[in-house]
Design a protein that fits this description.
This protein is α/β, with parallel strands linked by helices. The chain has 17 helices and 18 strands. A hairpin with a 4-residue loop joins strand 12 and strand 13. Helix 5 packs parallel to helix 6.
């Protein structure tokens, strides 16, 4: 039956387990179960036994904050008048909240999320701490007020972690209750978030709270105070979660009339347990002593009967002993004969085993020798094959080099013959024009000078061609060793230029000697310079951004179809194109993002096979501030995606994702691994950008 004190206590339960208008706030069944169990304790016979009409439950109430506050005010006023009419008055008010705590975007006011909370305007759709304090001060000014807060600010949604700011709750609410007796019990301190471990039906704090209320402590009195309750909760948390427990705190901001946190309030179900256990131990000891006396009497009687039976057995045993002696004598003789036979058989069997073991050792030794000989033969054959392949490759290379040298020698011979012919013609012209006028003599001299310059240029050209030939042979040998990460674009371009030069050399005999050699040389030089410029521009250019100091961190590389962005600060290499750029659509699930990474590795995207879906921490390296997101929008390929899947998985069906909107991005959220939609039903622009560790 409820006592007189229970009728003078009022209780209010607040909070919500689901937030339809605020998708960023994680729904929590742990909130629902925690609130339901607290209400059961308030009403139950083993709890505070409060009458049903003394409890106001607004948990999961869909009404607006103002309507709920008005309901609280009416509840307190109505019960105050009812008790006055009965000649009594209310003494205690207990308020319990479980859910999400948050700060408004504008004035950073602390508020408590309810079912009607809208993420567009949290301050107007949530219960502000200041408004709750005003209602309680105006309508419960002369009550002892006990407030229990189990709430957090959602930085990571679902059951694993709830990042909260309960320090703000403590500071804000403490400032709002400067009058009379008020005690606060907060689920965490100012620097740590509240937690809800995976697999636990309730939140970590509420689970420890209910365990303390239901079990109590044998060393405490008949009733537990608010402070003692806080100590029991700390002990339960330290015992259950030694590695990850969050320390709760009890505060009494108003102690002008005394600290109400020390007033006995909650029943201690372990009270008197020590005396009961001692009484039970004494009764058990008395029962054990009586049983021991009965056992001793029974043992004495049995001992006397045993003595008489022993005498009879002795006579029988003596007679049986004589008979056994005779039988044993016969048995010993038979056993000795059997032993001799068994030892002889065992010796023969042992000799057979030793012979078999020796044969097995010989067979194993012969098998090892055969295996070693076969292995040596295989190694010799493999070495011979490698030597033959190397000799064939070197012979092929030597033949190709000899063929090229022969072509060069033939070309040099033709050029030399041409130079001798020109020299003879010039000498003949000189003899024929001994008496020419000064103008004609000057023309002949110029022609001779031109011939000399042409010969000099041709010799230089021959030397350049020979150098390019040597470079081509060296490069061809180098390409026999594959590079799984892709060859250098500079080497690729140089090899193309050399091939073009060789092609020009092979086609040279179709033209008159000496006419297209300068053109081929110019072409080869231009190709090499263009390749060098292209590679330099591809690997060394730095894209300008709105912040040049930040943009200078990033270097572009890779082929044009699969370019990469190297962050020289973090050592991460990003794919310049995201999934939307490559596929032209948004991702439908987190699993599809992981499959995209596996496919890219199988296809050696940009020449690498170690791409992966970034974690939230890796995204943070390019998404810490608005300036970071502006630079990222500039250096990466233009995309319609604004939200990117991360590799973090807080639960078996939950994955994290990161926002990249320039103004409002930077958040990291978790949710279902399937496709997400906005409140209006439109699909969220979700994609993924692959990353790898470059150093």
């Amino acid at each position: 039956m409820p006592d007189d004190r229970s009728t003078r206590m009022l209780a209010v339960v607040l909070g919500a387990s689901t937030f339809p208008n605020a998708p960023k706030l994680a729904d929590g069944r742990a909130f629902y179960i925690s609130a339901a169990d607290v209400i059961d304790y308030l009403r139950g016979e083993s709890g505070l036994t409060l009458p049903r009409h003394n409890i106001l439950s607004l948990f999961d109430d869909s009404r607006s904050p103002s309507d709920q506050l008005m309901e609280i005010a009416g509840f307190l006023t109505r019960h105050e008048l009812e008790l006055k009419s009965e000649g009594a008055r209310a003494e205690d008010l207990l308020i319990y909240y479980v859910g999400h705590g948050m700060f408004t975007r504008g004035d950073q006011a602390y508020c408590l999320a309810i079912r009607s909370t809208n993420e567009i305007n949290e301050g107007a759709t949530s219960i502000r701490a200041t408004d709750l304090a005003s209602v309680i001060k105006e309508n419960a000014a002369f009550l002892r007020r006990y407030l229990i807060f189990d709430c957090c600010f959602a930085a990571s949604i679902y059951k694993e972690f709830q990042s909260g700011a309960l320090s703000a709750a403590r500071v804000q609410i403490a400032a709002e209750f400067p009058e009379h007796g008020t005690a606060l019990l907060c689920s965490s301190n100012a620097r740590e978030p509240s937690l809800a471990p995976h697999g636990l039906e309730r939140t970590m704090f509420s689970n420890a709270l209910l365990e303390a209320l239901r079990n109590g402590h044998p060393a405490a009195g008949r009733l537990l105070s608010f402070s003692e309750l806080g100590d029991l909760i700390k002990e339960n948390l330290r015992t259950e979660y030694p590695e990850s427990w969050v320390r709760p705190e009890v505060h009494s901001p108003d102690q002008r009339e005394g600290d109400i946190a020390s007033i006995p309030l909650f029943p201690n179900h372990a009270y008197g347990q020590l005396e009961l256990e001692e009484k039970l131990r004494q009764e058990a000891a008395e029962r054990e002593a009586a049983a021991k006396r009965i056992a001793e009497d029974r043992a004495a009687a049995e001992q006397e009967a045993a003595k008489k039976a022993a005498a009879r057995r002795k006579v029988e045993e003596e007679r049986a002993a004589r008979e056994r002696f005779e039988q044993e004598q016969l048995a010993r003789e038979a056993a000795e004969a059997k032993r001799i036979a068994e030892e002889r058989a065992a010796a023969e069997q042992e000799a057979a085993k030793e012979a078999a073991a020796r044969r097995k050792l010989e067979e194993e030794r012969a098998a090892r020798e055969r295996s070693e000989q076969e292995q040596l033969a295989r190694k010799a054959a493999e070495a011979k094959r490698i030597a033959e392949e190397r000799a064939a490759a070197e012979l092929k290379t030597a033949k190709e080099a000899a063929a090229r040298r022969k072509v060069e020698e033939e070309r040099a011979a033709r050029e030399h013959a041409e130079q001798e012919r020109l020299a003879r013609e010039a000498a003949e012209a000189k003899r024929a024009t001994v008496e020419v006028n000064p103008a004609e003599r000057q023309t002949a001299t110029s022609a001779t000078t031109t011939g000399v310059r042409l010969r000099t240029k041709r010799w230089i050209l021959a030397l350049v061609c020979l150098g390019l030939l040597v470079l081509t042979i060296w490069w061809a040998r180098g390409t026999h060793q594959p590079d799984h990460k892709g060859s250098s674009p500079i080497s690729s371009e140089l090899s193309d230029g050399t091939s073009q030069a060789d092609s020009g050399k092979r086609s040279a005999p179709s033209s008159p000697p000496g006419q297209d050699i300068p053109q081929q040389l110019d072409k080869m030089q231009s190709a090499a310079e263009a390749s060098q410029e292209k590679s330099s521009a591809q690997f060394d250019k730095v894209l300008p951004g709105e912040n040049s100091d930040l943009a200078s961190r990033f270097t572009v590389g890779g082929p044009d179809s699969a370019q990469t962005i190297l962050d020289t600060k973090s050592g991460l290499m990003w794919a310049r194109k995201d999934y939307w750029d490559i596929s032209g659509r948004y991702l439908s699930s987190w699993d599809e993002a992981m499959q995209f990474a596996a496919t890219s590795n199988a296809e050696s995207y940009a020449g690498y096979t170690d791409w992966h879906v970034p974690s939230v921490a890796e995204y943070r390296t390019i998404n810490t501030s608005k300036t970071d997101r502006q630079v990222a929008a500039h250096i990466f390929e233009k995309t319609d995606a604004l939200i990117y899947w991360a590799s973090n998985t807080p639960g078996p069906y939950v994955a994290s994702y990161v926002g990249f909107e320039i103004k409002d991005g930077g958040y990291a959220v978790s949710g279902s691994r399937t496709e997400h939609h906005f409140a209006d039903g439109s699909i969220m622009p979700m994609s993924v950008r692959l990353v790898r560790r470059a150093k």
